[in-house]
Amino acid sequence: MNDEVIITIEGLKKHFPVGSGRFTALNGIDLSFGKGEFAGLIGPSGSGKTTLLNIMGTLDSPSEGMAIILGESVGNLSARASALLRKSQLGFIFQSYNLFQVYTVFENVEFPLLLQGIEASKRKKMVLDALEWVGLTDKIKSKPAQLSGGESQRVAIARAMVKKPAIVLADEPTANLDAANSHNILQTMEKLNRELKTTFIFATHDEKVIGYVRRKIFLFDGKVAKDEKIEKN
Amino acid sequence: MLAFKLALRNLLGAGLRTWLNVIILSFSFIIIIWLKGLLEGWDRQAKNDMIKWEIGGGQFWQASYDPFDPFTLLDSHSTIPDVLSDSVTNGTLVPVLISQGTIYPNGRMQSVLFKGISPEQKVLALPTLKLKSDGTYIPAIIGSSMAESTQLKEGDYVTARWRDKNGTFDAAEIRIACIYQTNVPSVDVGQVWLPIDNVREMMLLPGEATILVANKEGWKTEKSDKWIFKDQKTLLIDIENIIKAKSFVGILIWAILLMMAMLAVFDTQVLSIFRRQKEIGTYVALGMTRGQVVQLFTIEGAMHSVLATLVAAAYGIPLLTFQAIRGISIPVESKDFGIAMAAKLYPVYSLTLITGTVIVVLIVTTIVSYWPSRKIGRLSPTEALRGRIQ
Predict the structure, then answer these.
(1) B97 membership: H or E segment, kind and range
(2) Substitution target from A58, A63, A86, A107 for chain B, most B beta carbons within 10 A
(3) Labelling A94: which of A201, B98, B164, B292 has CA 20 to 30 A away?
(4) Full residue range of the structural domain in which residue A52 is found
(5) Contact (CB<8Å) A59/B15
(6) Block means of pLDDT (10 residues each) for chain B, length 390 residues?
(7) Is B285's CB within 8 Å of A84's CB?
């Protein structure tokens, strides 16, 4: 791991209006992440994992405190600036893959590059590289409906990684997969983390994921209950 | 450009769902253009027939002539002024003498207008050459509607009765020399065309006429208070009014068809936004602004009409061209409509009509697509990613 800090979170709180009152999803989070981390936000449902992930992904903003992602304060970012940050530096992997059903595998992976305006020949090469990382070069013309769950998630990983983002945020990436596919996906992500030095942050309560991460951040009732780093070879 | 590319990719990727909408929209295109083309064709044909059979290039009316007041007919005739007599002689003006009278076909009595016209005239499409005779009988020509209502056939004799200029009643046998087909009821229903010399003799009005039909436009009222020139525009005013009234109905039908087509697009858009919330959230997560997503959905909706234009062109151009050439047969009963209507209508599809329809549909589709898409702008991406209905 590199010592360069790319995410700094201080005194982060997030409230949601519920009826006439409010629900506090995050209640004073202080965390920082360095470049190349492979970390897991671990906790039961309602512990604030996804909310924290969404704020780190600039999809949501803090109610109080601050979250600085790659030097940008999430609370102060305009819609355009946060979209630009997501487009260039952030990758997302979702529990239900969120692939575009009408696109082929190739088109799904190509999508982030289209948004970046990369020229066609370069785009093609980057897409094929990304599909090679996840071992799906033989499926480029398939539609998501023709893929298994594991294959779909591998396409989602390729889509998140194709632009070589600084950070990949994965929300329960193995929740819909069986054990074999889960391990396969996690090994793929671990390999990409090592080779490309991309920071991976997972929101999970899956034991299989927990077994792979090198940093375990336990959340409970919107607070960090434990932050433990594991040395792995 | 990216939004267009993505919109097209989304639409084509959606397959059957897109094509069903596109086909429905293309039907609307074709029906709108067909209907407007039919009305335009009908209007044009009605005007052309009126000019060909009745109006010519305009008419000089004797000052007292009022076609809507039969009581003035007895007085609405004069000798042809000197300034116009040369034109009458060379056939560029055709005199018509009109008089009221009665015929007795098959023992029944029917009021008619006797219209005297020169058999040699070439201005109107009436088959007046059939009014030539050897002088042993008075030839008459009537239209097919008149023949049908009086049950007269070619070669039949019928008693005609009239009142001359002195108010004296007189009668004679006339022979039906020809029954002609026309789409113009006003030269058919209740009309008996006779040689003008015979009518002048019957009415004791030598050298007189009620109207003079011009062979072409460009005449002006001369300095004579007895003859007033009515140009084509004036004489077509009634039909223009009917067309205007008909156009309103046409526009109403056009608007209903357009609304139905737009309802399909609107419905698709609303359903799309409802169903594709996760997709919208994913677009935002991958780096699109909500504004860009609104733009994408609007273009997607609007592109339905672009694709519909192409599909409509593919089957519409041959279909509509075929109809424009072959015409559309109209049932016989349509004669009772009271406006010139041919047995076959030939729709006219002008470039203005086609481009106008395409542009209007495109604009309206874009508005209709944008309307529900605005909702995306208020959608929270985190909620959208969960596919939660808002």
Answers:
(1) strand B93-103
(2) A86
(3) B292
(4) 37-61+76-229
(5) no
(6) 88 86 87 87 87 92 88 86 88 93 92 94 94 91 93 94 91 95 89 95 93 84 75 88 79 84 82 86 91 92 90 93 86 56 80 88 89 82 74
(7) no
